Amino acid sequence: SFCIIPTIKGRLQSKPLPQIVEEFQGMLDVGQVQEVVLVAQDLGDYGKDLRVDDDDDESQPDLTQLLRQLLQVRAKRTRQRGKHRQPYQHVDDKVWLRLLYLYPDEITPSLMNVLEEFTANDNRTTTTEDSSSSSSS
Fold first, then answer.
1. CA angle, 67 as apex, 111 and 103 as ends, to 5°?
2. Which residue from 75, 82, 66 is spatially nearest to 118, judged by alpha carbons?
3. More confident residue, 26 or 59
């Protein structure tokens, strides 16, 4: 069989990492966001076209860096919500990040580490919430 998509999709065009983080922050500010979907023809290729400095491997953003920054924003909002209940009461502690389309050969150890950190943070949040609600009842 033959797939025409690679032929017609054109070259990779990743959105700059700061722009995605800003949009994510904006969605959290609006509130009542339950899920954010990162979608691309091949999400594992994110950032390969964004190299800023050829001498610095760290300057090329990738999916791992993107997810880490989004999770930091989410964690910061969760902390703000705890400190300032009124202005941030609409911020959901459990905004899901859905990744479409990520292929198995692009799942790196560093990506797995970020996903494990994300899961561990969610489990700690759930455990803390569960124990505080059961102790108050």
1. 50
2. 75
3. 26
